Amino acid sequence: MKIIHVENSGRDYRLVLGSEPRPAPGPGQVLITVAAAGLNNADLLQARGHYPPPPGASPILGMEVSGTIAELGDGVAGWRLGEKVCALLPGGGYAQFALADAGSVLPVPDAVDLMEAAGLPEAAFTAWTNIIDTGRLASGESLLIHGGTSGIGSLAIQMFAARGHRVFTTAGSDAKCEAARSFGATRAINYTREDFVGVVKQETGGKGVDVILDMVGGDYIQRNIEAAATWGRIVNIAYQKGSKAEVNFAPVLTKRLTLAATTLRGRDPEQKRAIRDVLLQEVWPLLGSRVKPVIARVFPLAEAQQAHEFMAKTGHIGKILLTF
Ligand SMILES: NC(=O)c1ccc[n+]([C@@H]2O[C@H](COP(=O)([O-])OP(=O)(O)OC[C@H]3O[C@@H](n4cnc5c(N)ncnc54)[C@H](OP(=O)(O)O)[C@@H]3O)[C@@H](O)[C@H]2O)c1
């Protein structure tokens, strides 16, 4: 099967087309004929040598795919050969065939294009588990999502706007803010000329927001604390502007805030299955109507290098895909 492998792992890595034998599914796994693979920022980190796959995972890049089921491993029930699916993977997505744990697989409804569905799993799992499981967003509460036009942000805004939440978001240009509003954001804040703390305070009558999903870090660590409401929850999924900051923790105490940070990739299959089951119930019925994958650009597999370079420029809105 065709795969992409990383040459010269490090700052000047190259992604090149190669081939490998097609893998066979083990117990509890399915083999997927890949229609498309979604790009994630973590793929760029892995190629640079900073984010190794968890033990037992494929060393091939790629944490999400869509396609059709080619083979079922022992003990897998509820799926049939040829069924259209998308799946969260611990690795191995930049390949013609990819192995997935059956508990990380979701159906692709008719209302969603099979290729575009490759942009759903990582964003849906990450948004749900961080905003609901860790952030405990409750009915009627408000939400601030930084990076509103990122792959994660573009789906997260839709998911939680559709569930009736007031969603604030930040992005780095007016065009990105306009896109974020089209996803359902109540207020998109262009952080190059507006202070999100001031805007959020003003829009909430001085109260602040209940839950913040942050991928930025750096000076946002302090500013999130200022923007949070009493009993607020701040959840970091990345620290793109830095994981070190001098922080005044006094408002964490006085506002009774919770600060948390989680990763998804290394969680065990049972935890991922639990998230998958809730997504099926709570988010999948909204697909095709209130929630759609936002696709920035599609590259053929052989142009994986160009796709990474495009992502690194951070001008995109939504997900970048590789197709076969
Ligand atoms: N912890 C987890 O489990 C988990 C899971 C999935 C993803 N993530 C992380 O979540 C982030 C988003 O992932 P993605 O795949 O959706 O990435 P993506 O599409 O490349 O989006 C990243 C966005 O972050 C914003 N950004 C980048 N550098 C920034 C900076 N220095 N300051 C402020 N904003 C910056 C950019 O938007 P603007 O141009 O608007 O600034 C960019 O669109 C990544 O950092 C990824 O590693 C974590």
Question: How would you characterize this protein structure?
Answer:
It is globular and about 60 Å long. Helix 2 crosses helix 3 and helix 5 runs parallel beside helix 6. It starts with a strand and ends with a strand. It has nine helices and 15 strands. By secondary structure, the chain is α/β, with parallel strands linked by helices. The mean pLDDT is 97. It folds into two domains: 178 residues, Quinone Oxidoreductase, Chain A, domain 1, CATH 3.90.180.10; 139 residues, NAD(P)-binding Rossmann-like Domain (Rossmann fold). Helix 3 links the parallel strand 8 and strand 9. Strands 3, 4, 5, 6, 7, 14 and 15 form a seven-stranded mixed sheet that branches. NADP nicotinamide-adenine-dinucleotide phosphate binds next to helix 1, helix 2 and helix 3.
Q: What features would you highlight for this structure?
A:
single chain; 324 residues; alpha/beta; Quinone Oxidoreductase, Chain A, domain 1; Rossmann fold; 7-stranded mixed sheet; 6-stranded parallel sheet; 9 helices; binds NADP nicotinamide-adenine-dinucleotide phosphate
